[in-house]
Amino acid sequence: MGDTHVPTREDDAPITTSKRDDGTADASAYLVEDKGDALVGKTVTINRPRQELYAYWRDVSNLPTFMENVVSVEPIDERRSRWVVKAPAGRTVEWISAITEDVPGEVIAWASEEGADVPNSGRIDFRDAPGGRGTWVTATILYDPPGGAVGKLIAKMFQREPAIQARRELRRFKQLMETGEIATAARTRRELEEEQG
Amino acid sequence: MRALTWHGKHDVRVETVDDPEIVNPRDAIIRITSTAICGSDLHLYDGYIPTMKAGDILGHEFMGEVVETGPKSTLQKGQRVVVPFTISCGSCFHCSKHQYSACDNGLPADNQDIAQTAYGHPMAGLFGYSHMTGGYAGGQAEYVRVPFSDVGPIVIPDGMEDDKVLFLSDILPTGWMAAENADIEPGDTVAVWGCGPVGLFAVQSAFLMGAERVIAIDHFPRRLELAKRFGAETINFEETKTYEALLEMTGGIGPDACIDSVGLEAHGLFADNVWDQIKVSTFTGTDRTHSIRQAILACRKGGRVSMPAVYGGFVDKFPLGAFMEKGLTLKTGQTHVQHYMPGLLNAIMEEKIDTTFLISHRLPLEQAAEGYRMFHDEQNEVTKIVLKPGMDLAQAA
Q: What number is the ipTM of this complex?
């Protein structure tokens, strides 16, 4: 439960660190629904209990506080929510996301529904960090980059690339949970608003 | 407000900029009363540090009065505080171990990428020092926004003058941690490369920690004179072969502990082209960046090497063989300022450590650009410049 390792592999490293190109297949076989062929994975240690972290994440309306590119997440019912997300060149993309697995304090998994602008699926695992260091939060995300490889490259140029975003969003989540705020060098409230764009 | 801003190589200006505001709940706004120019500011001035932007406000050694507090700040208006140069959250794993300069959360999330690429991990944020270290506005200004004000700033008792406590912000704890990292034992001989502010504080700290002898190495006569004042023996490396002298002065044993406080004196990453200029052989003793190699070669077998000096990138001709064969220990790191401040404030109050000797010039903030030029051009005479916002030109000394 909550383990991102895949039993068939030859070592204990997470599939997202594999040099082989079959990581995506393993991810969709064992971890998340198959909603794309680009795989993103990242783990961060957060010096807070996992129940607290899970609870904050499970209330999806909280997510835009640390997900800079997410304009809004509007709950539709207990399981489904409507996402509006910034895309390169001032555009936005939308989808409806449904929770596919939900174990309090351990895992939240989701998949986008048919018709999503950017099909995606993933899971957030919450595990006790060894040595009483809090919680390991692991994000494993599969997505279908808009416009394929070229779209991915363009997105990267605009820093809206999901791998970069996932890394930064996990850092912001950690900052918010550990310190109660998100670090910024803004000197004035106007600068902060410009930064958050 | 008025602030010293960076515009390019040898181009800093005092300009009018927007006043800082409370942005996050743990912030405080400080009205600056004293702010020093650091040796590492000169590397910004010389244009060596990448990721600077025109208009950046410099300064990471400062203190002042609390004028505004966010809802989660523990400071109170009117308190006088010294602010550490490192921006650390106080809540992450590293802060809980008092490894404040390794704080996970001091840097904005987006700024962490470049440090992670360069060093493998992002480090704490720094005031007034490039965008790789967070892009935080510095304290060579009338006011500054201080994040995590419940963790960093130390409150100064009434009656303690600024000049006595200002250096708690950086160079005093840095010199102290350098000596602590040398694991000094009673009877030790400690060699200190570089008698800038950090080296001179390391000399004082080493004696307080029980060193029997301290040998200070530099080439500026004025700095060697200051080291001598604190009881150090001196080597002027322009006149003396340093390695040979150290061995002769220790009966062939070598110093028990070696402190390299020369380095590049910078608080950030250096452009790789700087390293390309450093292509001279070991033992010449004339290039200051050789200090770490010389320290390793001179250090006694089984001795300790402490490196407070900042190295930002890669170094070649590192004597790894000597380091291994002699079984040396190397300790280093950016200073965990918050950890050392309370103890060092006590040491100052008990007059165990002299801090004011260092200040050679006091100038109004309006003359900050001139201060940079002086500090850059006249390193023998100018040991430390303290800028005082609001000071009359007539008071300048």
A: 0.89
Using a CB–CB cutoff of 8 Å, tell me whether B318 touches chain A.
no
Cα B56 to Cα A34, B6, B14, B30: the distances in Å are 47, 5, 11, 18
Position of tokens 């996402």? A83
DSSP class of A187: S
Query: Model-level pTM?
Result: 0.91
Amino acid at A71: V
Q: Which backbone phi and psi does A74 adopt, to 5 degrees? A: -110, 115
**Element holding A171 (H helix, E strand):** helix A162-179
Token pair of B294 as six digits:
């010389």
| B132, B50 contact by CB (below 8 A) | yes
Query: Per 3-state DSSP, what percentage of chain A is helix, strand, and coil (rounded to 5)?
Result: 35, 30, 35
Quote the tokens at residue A1: 């439960």
Q: How far apart are CA A82 and CA A97, in angstroms?
A: 6
Nearest CB to B26; choose among A171, A181, A185: A181
Q: Chain A residues contacting B, CB < 8 Å?
A: 45, 47, 133-134, 164, 167-169, 171-172, 174-175, 178-189, 191-192
Which chain A residue has its CA at the smallest distance from B116's CA?
Answer: A167
d(CA B178, CA B64): 27
What lies within 8 Å, CB to CB, of B394 at 6+ separation is none
Query: Could you list the pLDDT tens digit for every one of the 397 residues in chain B?
Result: 999 999 999 999 999 999 999 999 999 999 999 999 998 899 899 887 888 999 999 999 999 999 999 999 999 999 999 999 999 999 999 999 999 999 999 999 999 998 888 889 999 999 999 898 999 999 999 999 999 999 999 999 999 999 999 999 999 999 999 999 999 999 999 999 999 999 999 999 999 999 999 999 999 999 999 999 999 999 999 999 999 999 999 999 999 999 999 865 434 334 433 443 443 333 333 334 578 889 999 999 999 999 987 766 666 678 899 999 999 999 999 999 999 999 999 999 999 999 999 999 999 999 999 999 999 999 888 999 999 998 876 665 5
CB-based contact, B20 to chain A, within 8 Å: yes
